[in-house]
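Researcher: Let's do a round of design. I'm pasting the structure tokens now; please hold your answer until I've finished.
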């Protein structure tokens, strides 16, 4: 019986992955294959240092179209972290698209419709976002209804609350997440959003620090569920050479008050050189965590190089300097 349950855990993701690989081309079908690599050198507390292959990933997207546009998308993302010591299927889902994108149905393991996540993630960057503390994760297994109508976009999901590292044989704790966004005008220089989440999700144990951030990189306790009732506001602003992002969250997590704030600014100093700034704060009951980041991003023709300094005043490792070499390959056919 135990063996049967273990096999069942992997059936939903593997079904979607199999469809992605073997589904014949009905109508018009296109493929997008992407591979990226992230190597880092890290100096901590001005004494300890290490270098590793932080992450290597490969994704495949197969899109089926008819005379009215895209209809079905199958997507899979495989990631190997920390010198290939941790390999997992980070995302795998199928999405059926309604007319003109007014509604879409997604099933599988996907990014949650919260805050900045639908359009931005710091997973490949040198600073964190507070989604581990707020939601417990940024990716989960379940179903989602999303779409765009006029200047508004929306997403509503019901998921297990276990994150990407666990696919249990039962439904899970149950987590509902929703976001509605507003992008006025035709230039899309500003985008605003409002989010809410209610339910239970797993407790997060941080590897690098005790901030509970970047939950997809952390070890999770699937046996302990935290009650979550939180709301959030987010904004994205393009202003000439400036790009600003802001996300504010508040509510109750584990029956204690929780407030989180994130802000990031990128300034295009030169066509291939950006300055980067980010601030990340979390208040959870009597516990307070902070993170400050300043860095630079260079974009030569064949790769991206980033460097930055992170200060976390309430973390065991307050000072950290990181150098990153990043490369993305993408092919369409």
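Researcher: That's everything. Go ahead.
Model: Designed sequence:
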């Amino acid at each position: 019986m135990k063996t049967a349950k273990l096999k069942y855990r992997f059936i939903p993701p593997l079904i979607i992955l199999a469809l992605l690989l073997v589904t014949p081309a009905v109508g018009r079908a296109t493929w997008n294959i992407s591979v990226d690599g992230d190597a880092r050198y890290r100096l901590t507390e001005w004494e300890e240092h290490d270098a590793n292959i932080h992450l290597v990933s490969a994704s495949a997207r197969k899109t089926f179209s008819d005379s009215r546009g895209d209809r079905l998308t199958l997507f899979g993302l495989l990631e190997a972290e920390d010198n290939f010591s941790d390999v997992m299927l980070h995302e795998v889902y199928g999405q059926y698209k309604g007319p003109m994108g007014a509604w879409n149905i997604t099933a599988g393991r996907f990014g949650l419709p919260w805050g900045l996540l639908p359009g931005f993630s710091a997973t490949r960057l040198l600073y964190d976002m507070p989604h581990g503390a707020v939601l417990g994760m940024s990716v989960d297994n379940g179903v989602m209804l999303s779409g765009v109508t006029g200047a508004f976009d929306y997403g509503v999901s019901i998921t297990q609350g276990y994150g990407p590292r666990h696919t249990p044989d039962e439904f899970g704790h149950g987590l509902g997440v929703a976001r509605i966004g507003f992008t006025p005008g035709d230039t899309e220089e500003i985008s605003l959003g409002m989010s809410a989440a209610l339910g239970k999700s797993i407790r997060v144990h941080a590897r690098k620090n005790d901030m509970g951030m970047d939950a997809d990189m952390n070890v999770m306790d699937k046996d302990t569920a935290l009650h979550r009732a939180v709301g959030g506001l987010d904004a994205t602003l393009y202003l000439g050479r400036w790009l600003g992002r802001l996300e504010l969250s508040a509510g109750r997590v584990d029956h204690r008050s929780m407030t989180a704030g994130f802000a990031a600014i990128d300034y295009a100093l030169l066509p291939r050189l950006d300055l980067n700034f980010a601030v990340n704060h979390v208040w959870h009951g009597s516990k307070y965590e902070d993170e400050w980041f300043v860095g630079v991003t260079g974009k030569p023709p064949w790769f991206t190089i980033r460097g930055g300094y992170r200060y976390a005043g309430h973390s065991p490792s307050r000072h950290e300097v990181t150098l990153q070499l990043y490369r993305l390959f993408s092919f369409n056919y």
